[in-house]
TrEMBL record:
Pfam families: Peripla_BP_4. The lineage of its organism: Bacteria, Pseudomonadati, Pseudomonadota, Betaproteobacteria, Burkholderiales. It comes from Roseateles paludis. Keywords: Signal. This is ABC transporter substrate-binding protein. Belongs to the bacterial solute-binding protein 2 family. SUPFAM superfamilies: Periplasmic binding protein-like I (SSF53822).
Length: 313
């Protein structure tokens, strides 16, 4: 009965939307504007809006990923100014539900990217576009086991506890290690997506665990801070390190051997498909409830390949 009710609510959430595309603003609201990952999402959204007549684009986000209340305010402000649609990367799975419910009540379509909201919010958005973070975390863990074996210590440098992408990504990583090895997990440590915090945390971990064999940096600023700590401590190339995301700093770390590999999401595609999907909803076209935007493992051998250049930024 509950499943039928959820399906009915999902149908209602689409039925109350406008019958045809309404000219106006599509608001792209991300976790923070202070990250090249989210700036690449912006580039994808810009590319999409140029192909859509009658709409304009705005791009915003808090100063930090942990400023959840600020992101809620951005969504509520977009609803209040009656935007045509919203592309949202929610920083917290629970806190954003009331805000996207307000959008649903105002007949404004919402497309989520990168991170999920809680089950209570599933009726209030039309589509979710993201990396399969659990599978990506598992892929990073599998590679780490291949490089260091099944015994020893591995540190997890994470970002914002409870964020939808973090739950899947770090959860998948930990679960795979625990099921397929005897590796001892140190952490996770939460940087709040601040590079300097990740650098200091990693420096402390490296000093406290001289026998550390592997380390995982679970998002862009965390992995950059982790890489810098490895270099500054003289442990680069001595501890097997896997990062996540693919900005220029992380690419350099792969090239010089500080990082063995990086798992790279298609952030450009998230922005591009997010805007395109909002437009499709406004035009009453069917859209998938979930779309996997993919991840690629990039190492020194394939760093310059055409496939890698399409996702690196």
């Amino acid at each position: 009965m509950q499943a039928l009710l959820r399906q009915a609510l999902a149908l209602v959430s689409i039925a109350v939307l406008p019958m045809a595309a309404q000219a106006g603003e599509i608001a792209v609201i991300v976790k923070t504007t202070n990250s090249t990952f989210w700036q690449n999402v912006h580039k994808g959204a810009d590319a999409a809006i140029k192909q859509i007549k009658g709409h304009t684009l705005t791009f915003s986000g808090p100063a930090t990923e942990s400023a959840i209340a600020d992101q809620v305010n951005l969504v509520e402000n977009a609803v209040n100014r009656k935007v045509a649609g919203i592309v949202l990367a929610p920083s917290d799975p629970d806190a954003l539900v009331p805000a996207i419910k307000k959008a649903w009540e105002a007949r404004i379509p919402v497309v989520l990217i990168d991170s999920q909201v809680a089950d209570s919010g599933k009726a209030y958005y039309q589509s979710f576009l993201a990396t399969d973070n659990k599978a990506a975390g598992e892929a990073c863990a599998k590679l780490l086991i291949e490089r260091i074996g099944r015994e020893g210590k591995v540190a997890i440098m994470s970002y914002v506890a409870g964020a939808g992408s973090e739950v899947g990504r770090v959860g998948g990583f930990k679960a795979y290690l625990q099921a397929n090895s005897k590796l001892q997990i140190v952490g996770p440590f939460y940087s709040q997506s601040q590079m300097a915090t990740a650098l200091n945390q990693t420096t402390d971990v490296l000093a406290s665990h001289r026998d550390l064999k592997g380390i995982f940096g679970a998002n862009e600023p965390t992995a950059v801070g982790m890489g810098r700590a490895l270099v500054q401590s003289g442990r680069a190339g001595k501890v097997v390190a896997i990062g996540f995301d693919g900005n220029e700093d992380l690419q350099r770390f792969v090239k010089d051997g500080t990082l063995d590999a990086i798992a790279v999401q298609s952030s450009f595609q998230m922005g591009q498909l997010g805007v395109q999907t909002v437009n499709e909803v406004l035009q009453r076209k069917p859209v998938p409830k979930f779309r996997d935007t993919g991840v690629m493992m990039v190492n020194k051998a394939n760093l310059q390949s055409p496939e890698a250049r399409q996702v690196l930024y």
